[in-house]
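Chapter review: from sequence to fold.
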Amino acid sequence: MKRERNGAATKPTARRKLDAARREMYRKLVFEAAEAVFAEHGFTDAKMGDIALEAGISLKTLYTVFEGKQEIYQAITEIRCAELLSLVPSDPVLSPLQAVMDGVRASVDYLLRHPHFLRTHLREGNAWAVQPRASADALAPEAVAIWQEHLDRQAQLIQRGIDAGVFLDEDPQLMTKMMTAVYQVHLADWLEHGGTQDPSELTRRIQRHTRHLLCGGDAAQGTAPA
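The token string follows.
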């Protein structure tokens, strides 16, 4: 009898694990589909039916996983912003300039590997360098806080370069915003021209302009660290 009770007790546990695994599978499927739909239509014009169709699931199933497109948008943005935040170099051994150049390369590589995310946030018209406006309040406060932390970490890195006499002695917060604008303009131009430019060359261009911004005049004549 004891064995039967234990066996019976394991069934709900196994069912919960199966349900959790199924839900996680649907979440990943929906994330991929939703990013494609948001990139094509924008958040405002995207429909839950479009997302369900792209994901290859029923609308009913979609609503069992997410309450609406705002919840999906918030979840995706929070995850992507956190992943981008993790790319800000924190190794104190690296020189400030090398750390910035490494961060440029890592961030550009990440955004080019997630083109739907990139297109979505370019078409929303937000300036990346300032506190993001929440696209019809679509962004969760958590995502906004993560992005602000990203800007703050960049400013700390730039301050380290200023203290070391490597970067121009300017407001590090302002320099961070200007550097972020460099990313946004170059990436928008890359997409506008069909994304045909070699990614390595795109990265070098962003590194070159970032180096010029941070170091000034003659620094732009040199080759940015790879």
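Two observations follow directly from the output. The chain is about 75% helix and 0% strand. Residues 219-226 have pLDDT under 50 and may be disordered.
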